[in-house]
């Protein structure tokens, strides 16, 4: 099997920024710039989000490492973690200078790390502080400032809690709220359990849209297929998908076609060839190891004969140690051989 012509990752992208109908959630340790480049190949209209980056990391750390991204990723948002208005404003300015299309404030992460740093989900208990941070960012930049949050904290399950939070924070100038429709349990559950155990209440997001029709409300949590996306879009302005987009990335192609472009139908081979070309560019220009990129592509063959061989090759430490970009194409050939054998 020879490699097909590489998919042009920019050819299908909209000329102007699309609406936030579909977005891929910020996921710590997952949605780095290599992952976002890959997802952009699959869904030209989806909004992409960075991993959460703390204001302290931007003030004291390696800014290029944290902020650099590929031009093909647009529209792309920078998600910040922090609570000090001055530091948030400084970080937002950096994000705008680097070319991001949106600044998003994390008020939903429940891990102990963010609790110790007084940001993430625990900020929902301090709506006035969040409002002030949002206002500082809105005053500092000309791009949208948005907020991602939960519907409640611990055992607080009243809709009034999230309604009052959104109402207060909107006074700071945020017009877009991304609602993870679960409570965040700050004690007793791990971050993973916080994504699965607290019950989903999509009706809270729907009620927020009813109570704040002037705001853009996007819902996140447990959404796994196109019918679920369409059901939520009947209630709110947009949908954000996390784990399903990462664990079954080919679903993004279906969602792109179903929501934006019925003719959107790249082949998996075209996408793999584009990722090989990306690996070559990254290795040539930055010395990026192949393993840092191909880890995001492991689930591309899900449901196909040879998927296990594909994943095995791209997870083999010995093969990855000094791998060249064509390792990805060699791994994909295992899928082709298996498919032909099964025919």
TrEMBL record:
Which residues does the entry assign to the active site, renumbered to this chain?
A: 109
The EC number of this protein is 1.3.1.91
Domain DUS-like FMN-binding: from-to ranges: 24-323
Sites binding FMN sit at 26-28, 79, 148, 180, 220-222, 242-243
UniProt-annotated site: Interacts with tRNA, residues: 106, 192, 195, 308, 311
Name the chemical reaction catalysed here: 5,6-dihydrouridine(20a) in tRNA + NADP(+) = uridine(20a) in tRNA + NADPH + H(+); 5,6-dihydrouridine(20) in tRNA + NADP(+) = uridine(20) in tRNA + NADPH + H(+); 5,6-dihydrouridine(20a) in tRNA + NAD(+) = uridine(20a) in tRNA + NADH + H(+); 5,6-dihydrouridine(20) in tRNA + NAD(+) = uridine(20) in tRNA + NADH + H(+)
The signal sequence is none
Cofactor(s) recorded in Swiss-Prot or TrEMBL:
FMN
Supply the alphabetized keyword list: Flavoprotein, FMN, NADP, Oxidoreductase, RNA-binding, tRNA processing, tRNA-binding
The record's Gene3D superfamilies line, in alphabetical order, gives: 1.20.120.1460, Aldolase class I
Give the enzyme's main class according to its UniProt record, as a single word.
oxidoreductase
Q: Which PROSITE patterns match?
A: UPF0034 (PS01136)
HAMAP family in alphabetical order? DusA_subfam
The task this protein performs is described as:
Catalyzes the synthesis of 5,6-dihydrouridine (D), a modified base found in the D-loop of most tRNAs, via the reduction of the C5-C6 double bond in target uridines. Specifically modifies U20 and U20a in tRNAs.
Please name the NCBIfam families in this protein's record: PRK11815.1, yjbN
UniProt family annotation: Belongs to the dus family. Belongs to the Dus family. DusA subfamily.
- Specify the protein name: tRNA-dihydrouridine(20/20a) synthase
Q: Which organism is it from?
A: Viridibacterium curvum
Name of the coding gene: dusA
């Amino acid at each position: 099997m020879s490699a097909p012509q590489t998919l042009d990752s920019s050819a299908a992208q909209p000329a102007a920024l699309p609406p936030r109908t579909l977005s891929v959630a910020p996921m710590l340790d997952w949605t780095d710039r290599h992952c976002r480049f890959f997802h952009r190949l699959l869904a030209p209209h989806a909004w992409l989000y960075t991993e959460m980056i703390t204001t302290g990391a931007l003030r004291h750390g390696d800014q290029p490492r944290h902020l650099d991204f590929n031009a093909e990723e647009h529209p792309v948002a920078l998600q910040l973690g922090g609570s000090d208005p001055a530091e948030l404003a400084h970080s937002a300015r950096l994000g705008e200078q680097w070319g991001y299309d949106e600044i998003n404030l994390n008020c939903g992460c429940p891990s102990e790390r963010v609790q110790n740093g007084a940001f993430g989900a625990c900020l929902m208990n301090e709506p006035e502080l969040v409002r002030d941070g949002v206002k500082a960012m809105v005053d500092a930049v000309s791009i949208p400032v948005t907020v991602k949050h939960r519907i409640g904290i611990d055992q607080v399950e009243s809709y009034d809690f999230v309604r009052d939070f959104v109402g207060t924070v909107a006074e700071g100038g945020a017009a877009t709220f991304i609602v993870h429709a679960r409570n965040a349990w700050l004690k007793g559950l791990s971050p993973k359990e916080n994504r699965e155990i607290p019950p989903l209440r999509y009706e809270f997001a729907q009620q927020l849209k009813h109570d704040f029709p002037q705001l853009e409300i996007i819902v996140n949590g447990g959404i796994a297929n196109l019918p679920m996306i369409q059901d939520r879009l009947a209630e709110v302005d947009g949908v954000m998908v996390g784990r399903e987009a990462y664990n079954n990335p080919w679903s993004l192609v279906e969602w792109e076609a179903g929501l934006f472009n019925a003719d959107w139908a790249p082949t998996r081979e075209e996408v793999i060839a584009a990722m090989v070309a990306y690996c070559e560019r990254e290795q040539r220009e930055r010395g990026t190891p192949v393993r840092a990129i191909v880890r995001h592509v492991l689930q591309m063959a899900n449901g196909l004969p040879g998927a296990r061989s594909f994943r095995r090759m791209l997870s083999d430490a010995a093969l990855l140690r000094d791998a060249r970009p064509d390792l990805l194409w060699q791994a994909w050939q295992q899928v082709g051989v298996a498919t032909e054998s099964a025919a």
